[in-house]
């Protein structure tokens, strides 16, 4: 630290340049992670939020609700299996709604209509208004992003291409499905919207899209064997099965991985060049009796200080940017992820400085004498 | 015994197919409180001699005993420690760390050894004061004159209270007034602090401050009697007499 701090103070411009690069890299990493997090929330928040461990789909649907169709009666049988403590069904469909109340705007809004059993573990808690009632099939609860579109409790909704109507009785928070705000309704209501056309239910009695299971250590293999034509997967596999989820996440992760790899090399090269420049100086210090350990620590602590300050600045800039981003932008910073990436960047920059440390160990103190025959 | 002792030291370099004998059977003893000079043309083996004395280079044959320790028997790690604790280097063009002020140049030597105690700071200040740098403690090397830089380097060499001082062309970048000052200071500090000191130089003006002068030629070291203090003359006068 003795050498590290003093050199940082002395070579302000040089270290400022490296610092700015690190800040920019950190900023971009955090922005990307916020964007990735925002997108995946938008894509699958409802599935992520639900308190289930496994999901049963129709065989061949590859963990996608939109490709899967099962009978509700299966839920009861699943519930009786070992380790399964509860099973609840869910149906999903996409739609467009129009505010039918006089006070509302006439803007159409795309939504996801999710049917489930009122009072079950799949129904999210309302933050405003009242929850679903089994016998009130007109009443729905909606994601609170609809508030910004001018919807209020008590508004009636018309569904495009359907004669069905709905009435908002409550709002829930952070419930999005397939990039759309979710509206929760009863199963009967959902069925009357989804299977309005005769034959679209493929003759299945009380059709649903998926069955969510609660319980630890569920043997999905056994369930697959026991119930022909079903496929039980973990919740995270169900999240992966959301349309576009893997593709979006994959793209962001690839960018992040490249960015981290690039930053390792850029910083590594920078520190290495600085070390090369100072190799004569290090040679002299070694002749005076400085150990490799002493000099190595000087380098690593310097890189640590510089990276720590730069990454912190990157975090602050990211939170600052988040404040001015438009609301519609799928951007949400997860503190855990921010801390994780900050630590990762710190580790990467320190690892990249180890190349320089290796160089130091190879510097011959004889070069201090300067003119060896 | 303290001080430094060369016992039949030879150094061979392999250059392509040829072997170069840089040092040829050198024996020399420098006692505590003694200040000697090694002079000779470039290529004579002076630097090799200094590098071996400074534990930067191993001998091919023979032994170097520094303050009772045989350098051949020490591991590389212990040699680093020995350089830190027993050897004070004064290098040509001072070679200070550019971003440390005068006081810190000395303190960093203590830092290398571990912790920096309050006593060390006091000792550093006292050293710098005795070298006339009391007013320059906060200055960076770029703000110092050549002489001041070299004096800082001298203070740095004494900082760890080493048993031997090695000076490598300490006057190379100085005008003659400053050069005299600097060598005089090395001589004084070595005497008052009772160190064995070796100066490698080709600057014969500086020999008057030395107790003994050795001449290096083609790897052989010879005691040069022409610079002898005991005949009553200063070395400088000796030289002038010789030339006449």
Structure characterization notes:
The complex is a heterodimer of chains A (373) and B (244). By secondary structure, chain A is an alpha+beta fold. Chain A has helices spanning 2-10, 12-49, 73-79, 145-148, 187-194, 220-226, 235-240, 245-277, 279-287, 292-324, 335-362, and strands at 54-58, 70-71, 86-99, 109-116, 128-129, 139-143, 156-159, 165-172, 176-177, 180-186, 207-208, 210-214, 230-234. Chain A has two domains: 2-43 and 246-368, no CATH class; 69-208, no CATH class. In chain A, helix 10 runs antiparallel to helix 11 (335-362). The longest helix of chain A has 38 residues, at 12-49. With 244 residues, chain B is an alpha/beta fold. Chain B has a single domain, classed as Rossmann fold, CATH 3.40.50. Chain B has helices at residues 46-53, 76-86, 102-113, 118-130, 146-158, 176-192, 235-243, and strands at residues 4-15, 18-30, 35-39, 61-66, 69-70, 87-90, 164-168, 196-201, 212-217, 220-223. In chain B, the strands form two sheets. Chain B has a six-stranded mixed beta sheet with strand order 6-7-8-3-9-10. The longest helix of chain B is centred in the last third of the chain and has 17 residues, at 176-192. Chains A and B meet through helix 1 and helix 9 of A and helix 1, helix 2 and helix 3 of B.
Explain briefly what this protein structure is:
With 373 residues, chain A is an alpha+beta fold.
């Amino acid at each position: 630290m003795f050498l590290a701090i003093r050199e940082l103070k002395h070579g302000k411009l040089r270290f400022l340049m490296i610092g700015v690069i690190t800040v920019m890299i950190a900023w971009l990493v955090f922005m990307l992670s916020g964007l990735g997090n925002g997108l995946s929330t938008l894509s699958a928040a409802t599935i992520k939020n639900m308190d289930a461990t496994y999901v049963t789909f129709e065989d061949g649907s590859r963990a996608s609700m939109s490709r899967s169709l099962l009978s509700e009666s299966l839920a009861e049988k699943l519930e009786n299996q070992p380790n399964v403590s509860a099973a609840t069904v869910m149906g999903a469909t996409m739609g467009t709604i129009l505010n039918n109340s006089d006070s509302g705007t006439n803007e159409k809004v795309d939504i996801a209509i999710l049917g489930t059993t009122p009072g079950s573990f799949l129904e999210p808690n309302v933050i405003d208004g009242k929850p679903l009632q089994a016998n009130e099939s007109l009443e729905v609860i909606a994601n609170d992003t609809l508030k910004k579109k001018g919807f209020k409790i008590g508004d009636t909704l018309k569904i495009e291409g359907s004669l069905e109507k709905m009435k908002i009785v409550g709002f829930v928070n952070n419930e999005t499905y397939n990039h759309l705000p979710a509206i929760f309704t009863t199963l009967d209501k959902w069925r009357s919207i989804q299977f309005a056309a005769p034959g679209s239910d493929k003759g299945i009695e009380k059709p649903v899209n998926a069955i969510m299971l609660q319980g630890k250590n569920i043997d999905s293999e056994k369930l697959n064997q026991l119930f022909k034509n079903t496929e039980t997967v973990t919740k995270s596999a169900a999240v992966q099965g959301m349309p576009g989820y893997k593709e979006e996440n994959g793209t962001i992760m690839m960018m992040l991985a490249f960015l981290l790899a690039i930053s390792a090399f850029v910083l590594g090269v920078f520190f290495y060049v600085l070390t090369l420049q100072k190799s004569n100086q290090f040679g002299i210090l070694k002749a005076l009796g400085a150990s490799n350990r002493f000099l190595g620590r000087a380098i690593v602590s310097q890189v640590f200080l510089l990276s720590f300050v730069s990454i912190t600045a990157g975090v602050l800039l990211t939170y600052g940017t988040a404040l001015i981003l438009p609301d519609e932008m799928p951007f949400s910073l997860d503190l855990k992820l921010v801390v994780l990436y900050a630590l990762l960047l710190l580790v990467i920059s320190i690892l990249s400085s180890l190349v320089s440390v290796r160089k130091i160990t190879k510097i011959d103190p004889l070069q201090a004498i300067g003119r060896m025959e | 015994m303290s001080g430094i002792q060369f016992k039949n030291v030879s150094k061979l370099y392999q250059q392509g197919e040829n072997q170069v004998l840089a040092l040829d059977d050198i024996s020399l003893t420098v006692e505590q409180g003694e200040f000697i000079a090694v002079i000779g043309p470039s290529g004579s083996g002076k630097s090799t001699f200094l590098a071996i004395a400074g534990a930067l280079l191993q001998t091919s044959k023979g032994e170097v005993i520094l303050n009772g320790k045989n350098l051949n028997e020490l591991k590389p790690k212990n040699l680093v420690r020995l350089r830190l604790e027993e050897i004070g280097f004064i290098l040509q063009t001072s070679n200070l760390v550019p971003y440390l002020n005068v006081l810190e140049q000395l303190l960093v030597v203590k830092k290398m050894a571990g912790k920096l105690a309050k006593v060390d700071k006091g000792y550093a200040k006292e050293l710098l004061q005795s070298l006339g740098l009391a007013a320059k403690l906060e200055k960076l090397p770029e703000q110092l004159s050549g002489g001041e830089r070299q004096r800082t380097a001298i203070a740095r060499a004494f900082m760890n209270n080493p048993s031997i001082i090695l000076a490598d062309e300490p006057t190379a970048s100085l005008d003659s007034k400053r050069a005299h000052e600097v060598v005089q200071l090395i001589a004084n500090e070595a005497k008052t602090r009772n160190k064995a000191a070796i100066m490698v130089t080709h600057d014969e003006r500086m020999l008057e401050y030395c107790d003994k002068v050795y001449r290096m030629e083609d790897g052989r070291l010879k005691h040069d009697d022409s610079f002898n203090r005991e005949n009553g003359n200063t070395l400088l006068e000796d030289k002038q007499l010789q030339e006449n």
